[in-house]
Known about the structure:
Number of helices: 13
InterPro entries: Ald_DH/histidinol_DH (IPR016161), Ald_DH_C (IPR016163), Ald_DH_CS_CYS (IPR016160), Ald_DH_CS_GLU (IPR029510), Ald_DH_N (IPR016162), Aldehyde_DH_dom (IPR015590)
Pathway: Amine and polyamine biosynthesis; betaine biosynthesis via choline pathway; betaine from betaine aldehyde: step 1/1
Largest sheet: 5 strands, parallel
Strand content: 15-25%
Order of helices and strands: EEEEHHHHEEEHEHEHEHEEHEHHEEHEH
CATH class of the largest domain: Alpha Beta
Family: Belongs to the aldehyde dehydrogenase family.
Number of domains: 2
CATH architecture of the largest domain: 3-Layer(aba) Sandwich
Keywords: NAD, Oxidoreductase, Sodium
GO biological process, one term: cellular detoxification of aldehyde
Radius of gyration: 23 Å
Mean pLDDT: 95
Strand order of the largest sheet: 9-8-7-10-11
Helix content: 40-55%
Bound molecules: nicotinamide-adenine-dinucleotide
Amino acid sequence: MDDLVPSRQLFIAGEWREPVLKKRIPIVNPATEDIVGDLPAATAEDVDIAVDAARMAFFSNKGKDWASASGAYRAKFLRAIADMILERKSLLAKLETIDTGKPLDEAVSDMESSASCFKYYAELAEALDLKERTPVSIKQQSFKTHVLKEPIGVVALITPWNYPLLMAVWKVAPALAAGCTAILKPSELASVTCLELADICRQVGLPSGVLNVVTGLGSEVGAPLSSHPHVDKIAFTGSTATGIKVMTAAAQTIKPVSLELGGKSPILVFQDADLDNAAEWTIYGCFATSGQICSATSRLLVHESIAAKFLEKLIDWSKNIKISDPMEEGCRLGSVISKTQYEKILNFITTAKGEGATILHGGGRPQHLNQGFFIEPTIITDVGTSMSIWKEEVFGPVLCVKTFTTEDEALELANDTE
Ligand code: NAD
């Protein structure tokens, strides 16, 4: 156990609430493999209670509800949340690092971005008051037509583990600014800072039920939220496979969904590029947050004439990346999120090798770290377009490389994903 990690319950209707079935999930620090605490693990029973609380906050209180309050009223809370995130930045960042294995200074920057996001949406909430109705001009003079923006209702926000607080805030802040009430379901692999966000909401006096934080497994919380008849919309960020499940479940009650899914982005380097600059961005694009980014530039396409020189630069950069305990100053590459993810990434590398690819740099556990789910920054060449390393999202510090000779060929390869 880590004294820094608070023991929390579910946050429903403005209060901490033990899950109905009293289940909990261990929290593992992926950089040490230690169990550092545990999380409340909700089930469908808790989802029902949270949805009721959110509906109550949306519809009740005799017109004083969140939905019909002014944007300025809602903005006041969003700003207070932003301020408290900044006040608690240092602790929150440490918790994020313990929970995810990401370097501490990356976590600090995530906390700052989370606060900025609340401030940004506070402004947009206020702007709603200035422009309640936007006239639309149509030919028929006998009709008066305007656009009126209204909150959709109760929204379920289902988020991944790579930027636990930031991904959640990108959904919570706009939902609350618009006047929706919400149930946030963070990833079971990294929920600690989302429960701390709940605590911040409690401290700033956010009205009861406006934001509920319900932690637990995808199958036990995400699935019942997605199919719930009283949830009006789902906003989901995560893998494409889960996105399909969410969309299918939501379709049963004709619920709109927003999906932000996985990726396999290319980065293209042409002969006339500034190679030092391009090398820096290639390394950053693929290895930041240990490559666990949906927009990670995990496929490098480099012009044949500069490939050898460019790869040398990438190897030099990779050798200089500090891989260490993510709490250590100057750490640039922490661990990946979990044992499962660690094994999945190593399996991708082994399979690529078996299919004839060359591991130009890295490819395994760093020699100096025998504990924690660490993987070296890895560069793979001799990659074929039918290989899984080329086609599938690895979500780890793995760059695969192909060369091209013409722009057309580069574009064709860039678009060559499933
Ligand atoms: P995941 O799909 O495994 O899980 C995402 C969330 O869905 C978690 O909270 C999980 O508990 C929940 N979930 C699981 N099963 C569910 C179900 N049946 N119904 C409803 N919810 C369910 O994704 P992950 O492993 O947490 O995150 C990594 C993925 O997220 C990668 O594919 C990455 O590309 C993607 N991602 C995308 C973006 C983006 O903006 N497009 C940003 C970050 C991450």
